[in-house]
Recover the amino acids of this structure.
């Protein structure tokens, strides 16, 4: 987050709302989760601790970031009657 709790435009993927949406959509639900059912879509890497981690593909981050951005824009326009 940037100054005054605003999203940093240079790093929108660090927005807590975007991270929460990705986690809820793709990683919750155990064996019924999207990630579990479509493991082949998620690249993996081995961390320094030897554990294998799954990465979120960049297109998924882009999709969620776009949705969150539009929701914020809509909320801003609806509540203030202006774009910015």
């Amino acid at each position: 987050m940037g100054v005054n709790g605003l999203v940093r435009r240079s790093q929108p993927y660090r927005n807590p709302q975007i991270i929460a949406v990705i986690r809820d959509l793709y990683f919750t639900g155990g064996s019924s989760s999207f990630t579990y059912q479509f493991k082949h879509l998620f690249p993996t890497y081995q961390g320094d601790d030897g554990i294998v981690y799954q990465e979120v593909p960049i297109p998924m981050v882009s999709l969620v970031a776009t949705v969150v951005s539009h929701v914020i824009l809509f909320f801003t326009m609806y509540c203030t009657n202006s774009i910015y």
Notes: The longest strand covers residues 44-46.
